[in-house]
Q: What sequence folds into this?
C-alpha cells in the first residue's frame, strides 16, 4: 500500500476512504490550528470541500471546522474551542454524513464526465461541488437536441450497472501512458507530482484524481441533471443533484 504524506502528516483517507475514526499524536498546536502525525481529514482539492469533524482528548472535544494546506496539513478548530497540547494522543473522527455525501457527489461528477466524454467527446473546463449537488463545465460548442435528458438517462444507466470504482497509484510516466487520463482542457497534475493517483470507474472513466470516492456507481444514487447553462464561448455548465 502506498503511503501518502503531506508535510509531517500521513494521509490515511487516500488509502482507506471508508475510515472515519482513528488515533493520532499532536505534533503542533496553537489557536490557528493543529497538526497531527496521521489524519483522515480530507483537506479539500479538485472541487471537493475539506472535511469537518472532532478531536477527543482527556475528556475534551475540539471541533474541526476545516483544513488548511501549507507545509503541513493544519486542522482548523472552531473559534473558541480548546486545542490539545503538543504530544497529546487524540481520538479523531470525520463527520460521516458530510464526507459520504461528498464522496457520492465526487464520484457522480466522474461518472458525468465519463458519459459526456464518451458520448460527446467534450473535455471538462471546470467544476465544483457541495453535499449532493455539483456543477461541471464542458467545452461543448453546440447543445444537441434532447441533450439534458439524454445525459441524465445515460448517467443513471451507469449507476444501475453498478460499475466498480477502483483507486490506485502509478508512477507519473506509467499514468500518462493511459489514453485520455486527463479529462480537463488543461493538465492540472503539477510537474513535481511523480506518483499519480488514479480513479477508475471500470469500463467508463479513468482519471488522475486526488479526492475521495464511493466503491461503486450504485452507491452514488440517482443523478438528476437540473440545468444546462450557456457560459459563453461554447462552454456549457451542467448542474446535477444526487438523491437516494
A:
Amino acid at each position: 500500500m502506498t503511503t501518502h504524506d503531506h508535510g509531517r502528516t500521513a494521509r490515511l483517507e487516500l488509502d482507506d476512504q471508508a475510515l472515519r475514526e482513528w488515533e493520532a499524536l499532536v505534533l503542533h498546536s496553537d489557536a490557528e490550528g493543529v497538526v497531527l502525525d496521521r489524519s483522515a481529514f480530507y483537506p479539500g482539492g479538485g472541487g471537493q470541500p475539506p472535511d469537518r469533524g472532532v478531536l477527543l482528548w482527556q475528556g475534551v472535544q475540539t471541533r474541526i471546522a476545516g483544513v488548511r494546506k501549507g507545509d503541513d496539513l493544519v486542522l482548523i478548530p472552531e473559534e473558541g474551542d480548546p486545542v490539545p497540547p503538543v504530544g497529546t494522543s487524540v481520538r479523531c473522527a470525520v463527520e460521516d454524513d458530510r464526507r459520504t455525501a461528498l464522496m457520492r457527489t465526487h464520484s457522480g461528477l466522474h461518472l458525468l464526465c465519463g458519459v459526456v466524454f464518451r458520448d460527446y467527446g467534450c473535455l471538462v473546463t471546470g467544476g465544483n461541488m457541495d453535499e449532493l449537488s455539483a456543477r461541471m463545465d464542458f467545452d461543448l460548442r453546440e447543445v444537441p437536441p434532447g441533450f439534458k435528458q439524454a445525459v441524465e438517462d445515460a448517467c443513471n444507466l451507469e449507476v444501475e450497472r453498478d460499475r466498480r470504482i477502483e483507486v490506485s497509484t502509478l508512477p507519473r510516466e506509467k499514468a500518462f501512458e493511459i489514453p485520455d487520463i486527463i479529462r480537463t482542457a488543461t493538465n492540472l497534475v503539477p510537474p513535481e507530482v511523480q506518483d499519480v493517483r488514479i480513479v477508475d470507474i471500470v469500463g467508463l472513466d479513468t482519471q488522475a484524481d486526488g479526492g475521495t470516492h464511493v466503491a461503486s456507481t450504485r452507491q452514488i444514487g440517482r443523478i438528476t441533471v437540473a440545468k444546462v447553462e450557456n457560459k459563453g464561448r461554447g462552454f456549457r455548465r451542467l448542474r446535477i443533484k444526487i438523491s437516494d
Remarks:
- The domain at 5-94 is CATH 2.40.30.130 (Elongation Factor Tu (Ef-tu); domain 3).
